[in-house]
Description:
By secondary structure, the chain is an alpha/beta fold. The chain has helices at 13-22, 46-50, 76-89, 102-111, 125-141, 166-179, 235-248, 258-262, and strands at residues 3-8, 28-34, 59-60, 69-72, 92-95, 116-119, 149-156, 183-186, 199-206, 213-219, 224-230, 254-256. The strands form two sheets. The chain has a seven-stranded parallel β-sheet with strand order 3-2-1-4-5-6-12, with helices on both faces. Strands 8-9-7-10-11 form a five-stranded mixed β-sheet, covered by helices on one side. The longest helix is centred in the middle third of the chain and has 17 residues, at 125-141.
Amino acid sequence: MPTKVAINGAAGRMGQRLVALGCQDESLELVACFEYTGHPKFGKDAGEVAGVGELGLHLIEKTDEPYDAIIDFSVPEGAHAAVERAVAAKAALVMATTGLEDEHKAKIREAANVIPVVWAPSMSTTVNLTMKLCEIAGEALKDIPGGADVEILERHHRFKEDSPSGTALRFGELIADKMGITRHIHGREGRPGARPHDEIAYHAIRTGDNPGEHTIIFGLLGETIELTVRASNRDCYASGALQAAKFAAGKKPGLYNMNDVLGL
Ligand SMILES: NC(=O)c1ccc[n+]([C@@H]2O[C@H](COP(=O)([O-])OP(=O)(O)OC[C@H]3O[C@@H](n4cnc5c(N)ncnc54)[C@H](O)[C@@H]3O)[C@@H](O)[C@H]2O)c1
Ligand SMILES: O=C(O)C1=N[C@H](C(=O)O)CCC1
């Protein structure tokens, strides 16, 4: 039986790729495409909006159709609504929206007591693999003589609303845990003085239509290692999210991540 999937934020940049890839995947069935009622394309056919032709699925606010999983790529308020929808429908939730406030995060953790939730700032295979590599690097370099300076650069499209990216913040958390770092700073200006070793600095670049790129630098005295992971388009995130929906549907309640989905 195909997994019945609903998409929240279906007219967005990511929502459109989920519709386009989802409608070609025989192991799932798209059953609902949710959008904010104020969206200029609200009520239109989601397939036409995504550029794949009429699917007979309109951009709607609610449905009586049952679904096994809901995927959210929207905005913090939309994410909040997706959690409520998932709990009410007893469906799995794939939470991909970034820039969430603490209250939204608490709501997601609470939902994981009653439904399966896959929650990740990046659904990309190569990003999640790079996170593993950074954990190895952090562990190996934590006590290196002279210290290792960690800086995280991220580049995204000009329309991105949150900064730094959720992915950059997750890279920082994972490395900080391995290296025992507690100080996180965002950019530098003025005369901050010599760089202390016990900080991670984030730098966010916003240009054009960049679908996402992260570079993690471990700078030592005498040598440097940089890990870069780069998306060519958004399909790496969309296909990861569809895989996560199939993974989570029917699982027991709990919080899962993309390592669980991808077997990393
Ligand atoms: N986890 C990942 O792999 C990953 C990948 C890409 C983007 N993202 C995140 O996904 C989010 C969306 O990115 P995007 O580029 O598609 O943004 P976007 O602005 O193109 O799309 C967001 C969509 O959500 C809709 N929306 C707003 N309020 C809503 C509501 N209450 N209910 C339902 N829909 C609502 C908007 O109308 C819009 O169509 C961002 O937070 C981004 O950082 C995560
Ligand atoms: O396009 C975006 O917005 C992206 N956001 C994610 C983040 O904030 O980490 C990841 C990839 C693209």
